[in-house]
Design goal:
This protein is of the alpha/beta class. The protein has a single domain, classed as Rossmann fold. The chain has 8 helices and 7 strands, in the order H-H-H-E-H-E-H-E-E-H-E-H-H-E-E. Strands 3-2-1-4-5-7-6 form a 7-stranded mixed β-sheet, with helices on both faces. A hairpin with an 8-residue loop joins strand 6 and strand 7. The protein starts with 10 loop residues before the first helix and ends in a 15-residue tail after the last strand.
């Protein structure tokens, strides 16, 4: 087993009595997450600050008991981190690669997360068969392209919560016209976790209009 970083101060604030499960997730990421190519070896020392806690802090974007779709879930970020921090949420992880969905399913089982479902396929394949009041994604694509993938899965009046870097506001400003054409009726940049992270997590949050954009329909494959 590789060396696994200790949980930083502040992790308990978001994971509470489920901190041990978050620690187990970090250990899985440091082990099979690396060997499966989901996490780079150099990321292991900063798994908490840059990945797991970095994702968990966006939990304040979701209402109690909400259904959330994580598009392009990859290493379960942010989906699995949110599922641990917020057991009330109903998380659906959408990922097109078989190797990754297999790993996600195995990790969900190991962590005994009964509030997570894994779906194999591209986001656009689920339009019409899978939807939720909230969609989310991390490091998947520029906001205009991400909106085209996620908004068909976002219920009218719902919200896309996209994790972004320091240029979040600039990216949003540049794509406002394109987002309006996709039916976005409101948008903002939010900061999360400033009390526990050296560099807070930024999200671009888009509110879907009452008429969602059209997407290709497809069948859901669950595990």
């Amino acid at each position: 087993m590789p060396d696994v970083p200790d949980a930083p101060q502040g992790a308990h604030q978001f994971f509470g009595e489920r901190l041990a499960r978050a620690e187990q997730f970090v250990a899985v990421l440091a082990d099979t997450g690396v060997t499966h190519g989901l996490i780079g070896p150099r990321e292991v020392p900063r798994l908490w600050e840059r990945h797991v806690l970095n994702c968990a802090v966006i939990e304040d974007s979701f209402t109690e008991g909400a259904r959330v779709i994580d598009v392009g879930s990859g290493a379960g970020l942010p989906g699995i981190a949110l599922a641990i921090a917020r057991p009330d949420l109903d998380l659906h992880l959408v990922e097109p690669m078989l190797r990754r969905t297999t790993w996600l399913g195995e990790t969900v089982t190991v962590l005994a997360l009964d509030n997570v479902t894994v779906h194999r396929g591209r986001a656009e394949e689920f339009a019409g068969s899978l939807s939720a009041p909230f969609t989310t994604a991390r490091a998947v694509a520029r906001i205009d392209k991400l909106a085209r993938w996620c908004l068909p899965l976002t219920e009218p009046g719902g919200r896309l919560v996209a994790m972004k870097g320091r240029s979040a506001q600039e990216e949003l400003d540049e794509e406002r016209a394109a987002l309006a054409k996709l039916g976005v009726v409101d948008s903002s940049v939010r900061s999360h976790g400033s009390a526990v992270l050296e560099e807070p997590t930024l999200t671009v949050e888009l509110v879907a209009g009452t008429v969602p954009p059209k997407g290709r329909s497809g069948r859901s494959t669950t595990r």
